[in-house]
Amino acid sequence: NERHIATPTRTKELLKKYDFSFKKSLGQNFLIDTNILRNIIHHAGVTENTGAIEIGPGMGALTEQLAIAADKVLAFEIDQRLLPILEDTLSPYDNVKVVNEDILKADVQQEMQQYFGDQKIKIVANLPYYITTPILMNLLTRNLPISSITVMIQKEVADRMAAAPNTKSYGSLSLAIQYYTEAAVVMTVPKTAFMPQPNVDSAVLHLELRKEPPVHVEDEKFFFDLIQASFGQRRKTLRNNLNRQFASRFSKEELEDIMSAAGIDGTRRGESLTMAEFASLANTFTARG
Ligand code: SAM
Q: Ligand 1 centre and the CA of 207: distance in Å?
């Protein structure tokens, strides 16, 4: 166990051996607690039949535990300086492939097809916090053959992604994530599990991909525009926010008409509307052109 990458001793050794300096701009906070990694992998539901994708392997702390638990691992790392280190640390494992690419630019679908064939895949990662939302939205909207995503992210963002209506964390991000997945925060992780320690608290978010969206929406782009508009100013009523955002397209009377046809009281706040209510409101708009 002491020889595992995710320990303070081994991590310090590697930093020294390769004269590696952390890049804050790449969100480099490496995990140094093997038990936490095993826990993440357990929550992800990884078994010896699982094909796993990792984003940002760093020095291989999580990659190693995935190599042990999963069938095969495909990892995307943007920082070229880490490649020789990964080659060294992962040399005991023959079921890992590292790709030196930005996850937002890589042809993930093509890489997956090549490496895994038709296997269903789980994504497991300790994400770079500065681009958590772009990475997750990018993966979710690309229609990749994945069954779940389990990621360490900033706790505050994890709470927003998994939030229910009428809570302070609920907003357009909750609805965007939950349109594609069933979301749950499965564990919180102390700062001491990282090197260097991040400034924010961390949590693990588990996203189980839906086969179908939970609501029927005629025009997805408008649905998400409407949600954005409804949360425009959190303290204002739905009526106020919609009047402000849609003034050029709909009169006050038309907006009242649409809300009442959708059965939604304009004095409510955006944060009280469920996804089903947003869908019904959006579809009523769409039907009125
Ligand atoms: N998995 C390692 C661990 O847990 O110790 C490192 C996690 S660290 C929080 C995030 C990693 O993502 C870093 O290795 C960083 O270089 C990498 N990274 C940052 N932006 C990336 C991007 N756009 N595409 C791929 N990797 C990225």
A: 19
